[in-house]
Write a structure and sequence with these properties.
The protein is mainly alpha-helical. Helix content is about 55%, strand content about 10%.
Length: about 280
C-alpha cells in the first residue's frame, strides 16, 4: 500500500482498534504483575484446601494486607490485572479460568531472586526485560494475521529512524499512526518509509490518526524498559544502549525471524530463558 493510500485508509477506518496491536487494560507495573501472580497462587492454594472464595474479594483482601508491608509502591487492588501477568508470561492460561491458570517459571525465578519482595525491581530487572522481549502479539486482523514481538519491532523502527534523521527516535504520533498497526516484522521498512514521508507535509493527518486511537496500554511496559526514553511526545533509544540494541536486532533477525511460529513463541514466553537462549537451545540458530 503506497503512502497516500495508507493515510487515507487509516483516516477513513471506523475502528482502528481492529487493525492495531492488542494488550489488556489495567496496571502494567512489573511490581503489580508479580504480586498478581503471587496472589493468584495463594488463591489457588486456598481453594485447593476447601476454602471457597472468589478471586475479586480474595485479591482485594490480600493486596490490602500486603500493602501494609510496602511503603514504596501503591499496589493495585483489582484482580483484573491477572490477564496482564498472563500476557507477559508470569502466568499460563490466556483463555483459562483463574483456578485453572498455572504460575509460570519466570515468576518463580523472580520470586527467588528478590525473596518475594517484588518492589525490589533491580534484583530481577533482567528477567522482566527478557519477558517483555518475549511477549508477542498474535491476533487475526482483517485480511492478515498479526504475529510479532512488539519490543523488537519498536527497536528496529527506532534504529531505522536514525538512517534518515540521525536520531534514534520517533514521535508518539508516528507510533500511533504507523508502528501500532504493523502486522509483522518485515513491515518495519514500509513503516519507516511512511514515517519519513509523513514528516514532509502530512503532520496534521498523522495527528488526526493518533486522535482516532484509544489509549495504548503497551506504553505501560515500554516506560519500564531502561533502554527506552518515553515521553508524552516521543520515544527514543537512550544513547548508552544503542550498541546493545543493534546487537540484539542482529541476533533477532538471524535467529528468531527465521522461525516465526506461535507455539514456539508461547513456549519461549513461559520458559526461564531469554528469547535468544531458547531458540539456540532448540537448535534454531
Amino acid at each position: 500500500m503506497n503512502f497516500k493510500n495508507r493515510i487515507d485508509y487509516l483516516l477513513e477506518h471506523e475502528n482502528l482498534k481492529e487493525i492495531t496491536w492488542y494488550t489488556p487494560k489495567h496496571e502494567w507495573s512489573i511490581i503489580d504483575l508479580c504480586y498478581s501472580a503471587f496472589i493468584l497462587e495463594k488463591f489457588k492454594e486456598y481453594n485447593k484446601i476447601g476454602e471457597k472464595v472468589g478471586l475479586v474479594q480474595f485479591y482485594k483482601q490480600q493486596s490490602e494486607t500486603l500493602q501494609k508491608g510496602i511503603d514504596s509502591h501503591k499496589l493495585t487492588a483489582t484482580s483484573r490485572i491477572v490477564p496482564n501477568a498472563v500476557y507477559i508470561g508470569l502466568v499460563k492460561g490466556v483463555y483459562s479460568k483463574n483456578l485453572e491458570r498455572e504460575i509460570a517459571d519466570p515468576f518463580f525465578e523472580i520470586q527467588k531472586r528478590c525473596d518475594g519482595n517484588f518492589e525490589k525491581v533491580e534484583m530481577y530487572y533482567d528477567i522482566f526485560e527478557q519477558q517483555v522481549e518475549k511477549m508477542f502479539v498474535n491476533r487475526k486482523r482483517e485480511e492478515s494475521e498479526v504475529l510479532l514481538h512488539p519490543l523488537f519491532v519498536l527497536y528496529k523502527v527506532l534504529l531505522l529512524a536514525y538512517e534518515y534523521t540521525e536520531r534514534f527516535a520517533i514521535s508518539k504520533d508516528e507510533f500511533y499512526a504507523f508502528v501500532y498497526s504493523t502486522h509483522n516484522y518485515d513491515d518495519v521498512y514500509q513503516c519507516i518509509e511512511y514515517i519519513v514521508k509523513s514528516r514532509i507535509n502530512h503532520l496534521e493527518e498523522v495527528k488526526k490518526i493518533r486522535g482516532k486511537v484509544s489509549e495504548v496500554r503497551i506504553f505501560g511496559l515500554f516506560n519500564q524498559i531502561k533502554s527506552l526514553e518515553v515521553t508524552s511526545d516521543s520515544i527514543k533509544i537512550r544513547d548508552e544502549y544503542v550498541e546493545d540494541i543493534k546487537k540484539k536486532i542482529h541476533k533477532y533477525e538471524n535467529i528468531i525471524t527465521k522461525r516465526y511460529d506461535r507455539q514456539l513463541f508461547k513456549e519461549a514466553l513461559y520458559s526461564k530463558m531469554s528469547i535468544f537462549e531458547y531458540f539456540k537451545e532448540e537448535s534454531y540458530e
